[in-house]
Design a protein that fits this description.
By secondary structure, this protein is an all-alpha fold. The protein is 59% helix and 0% strand. The protein contains 9 helices and no strands. α2 packs antiparallel against α3.
Length: 177
Amino acid sequence: MQNEPFTSIDVLITHLEAWSDQASVEVEGLTELDHGLQCAETLAAQSPDDAELAIAGLVHDIGHKITSPETHAEDGAALLEGLLGSRVAAIVGLHVAAKRYLVTTDPDYRALLSPGSVETLRMQGGDMTPDEVAAFEARPWWQDAVRLRRADEAAKVVGRTTRGLSDWLPKLHQLAG
């Protein structure tokens, strides 16, 4: 179990490969890797020139197996920042807040949540207050976190075909510089 920041792409890849045996905490019939790959694929299709956003989608739930549902986003961001950069870490770190933001500001979004997301929403603080909305919108890359969050909900399709983890290696290596 990873408790220290990732120091190399090889260590990160080993962790991601282990996800292929770990059931998704959100959707029965998916693995954590399936979910991350679907999320990355969705974001890459929407923004083909934004490798950081797609990689954030791939790794956004990296904290699931090391921490609680309430803090997995922030804890995952802390593990990734030194390796993948501030933007990727910020987007990962804000994806739970983005869920709370969307259920507060988009009347149709709540109906899109998977049963697992509905359950964790309560643990993560539920709807935002007006002050929390303003604070969220003041954060760098908050709009990217919202895009990730929308892709996150769309990335829960059992049997969906995506590119494999090996296809993301060049982008991971590029970001790690």
